[in-house]
Design brief:
There is one protein chain. With 299 residues, this protein is an alpha/beta fold. The protein is 29% helix and 13% strand. The strands form 3 sheets. The protein has a 6-stranded parallel beta sheet with strand order 7-2-1-8-9-10, with helices on both faces. The protein has a two-stranded antiparallel sheet with strand order 3-5. Strands 4-6 form a two-stranded antiparallel sheet. Helix 2 (37-50) links the parallel strand 1 (15-20) and strand 2 (57-63).
């Protein structure tokens, strides 16, 4: 039936709402809370309820981590066996000098995480041809720094798969459930961040791709491109909204970038990263993206 078809595929054309990481851990009470995220979420929920019939598709990304992750404290130790504090920056030189080292007392099954066809293994093998986690971290850090966007930043453990912090914040979850019941549509969920050996701020690609799942997500981009209007919001303006949108815009035809809307009142910066959020918004405006409050996004 038509209803079943709509439940299982994104509709071509129309308006797509892209919700970036609207999860409990990024809201007050969560482990990496953005102070004004609750107000952002209320506006998102109200918009979905007030415009349910005008939203043809909802795509929601979920930051999805394991406890052991290259950007979490428990992955690293100092010489005196202490873990780094959240927001510690670990440079390539820090790893080479052994100020910080990946833990050697755990065995990581890299065969499930690294694809030599995606990530060149030449510099991460020891003299016997075996994978060396320290050498990997040095090479990973070099590639991250060379890309010019990031160094390794240690974050509080957040959005651990299966925990409450991973779930969509209730006010938005209730609104999208009502949208689904009212319209027959179903949310397309996009998980990112499951590979513990790379960081994935963008919903479309890891900062350093290490396997096929972390390469640029052409299928998601192609589905978003089918929209007549793409409205983007969520958390955080300084990080995952920022880099997801940069990837979208970089792979979007320049003549139709104006179809993309950044809902400026439904996303906020991680405290201390406000300048990154400001620079991002300026870059998006310069690229031709429409920046406006979410209630004006359908005008």
């Amino acid at each position: 039936s038509t209803f079943t078809l709509k439940m299982t595929t994104m509709r071509t054309g129309g308006t797509t709402l892209l919700l970036i990481d609207v999860q409990n851990d990024f809201h007050p009470g969560g482990s990496l809370a953005v102070p004004s995220a609750n107000e952002d979420a209320e506006r998102i929920a109200s918009f979905i309820r007030n415009h349910a019939s005008e939203l043809d598709n909802i795509v929601a990304t979920l930051d999805s981590h394991h406890k052991m992750h290259i950007a979490h404290p428990s992955f690293w130790v100092s010489v005196d066996k202490k873990h780094p504090d959240p927001f510690t920056i670990i440079t390539t030189d820090d790893i080479v000098s052994e100020k910080w080292l990946p833990r050697q007392d755990v065995k990581i099954n890299v065969s499930k995480l690294l694809d030599p066809g995606v990530f060149d293994m030449q510099n991460v093998l020891d003299s016997n041809g075996n994978f060396d986690l320290k050498l990997y971290c040095i090479e990973y850090s070099k590639r991250l720094e060379h890309a010019g966007r990031f160094q390794i930043c240690i974050w509080p453990e957040h959005c651990l798969i299966g925990t409450n912090g991973h779930c969509v914040v209730p006010v938005v979850r209730q609104a999208i459930e009502e949208w689904s019941e009212q319209t027959g549509g179903s949310v397309e969920w996009v998980l990112k961040g499951q590979n513990l050996l790379t960081e994935m701020y963008s919903a479309l690609a890891a900062e350093v791709p290490v396997c096929s799942e972390t390469k640029f997500n052409d299928k998601l981009r192609d589905r978003l491109l089918q929209s007549d209007r793409l409205i983007v919001c969520g958390q955080a303006m300084s990080h995952c909204v920022n880099y997801s949108m940069r990837d979208i815009v970089d792979h979007w035809p320049k003549e139709t970038v104006s179809k993309i809307v950044l809902a400026t009142d439904c996303s906020s910066a991680v405290p201390g990263f406000e300048l990154a959020a400001d620079a991002f918004q300026k870059d998006m405006k310069d690229a031709g993206v429409c920046l406006c409050p979410i209630d004006n996004s359908l005008a």
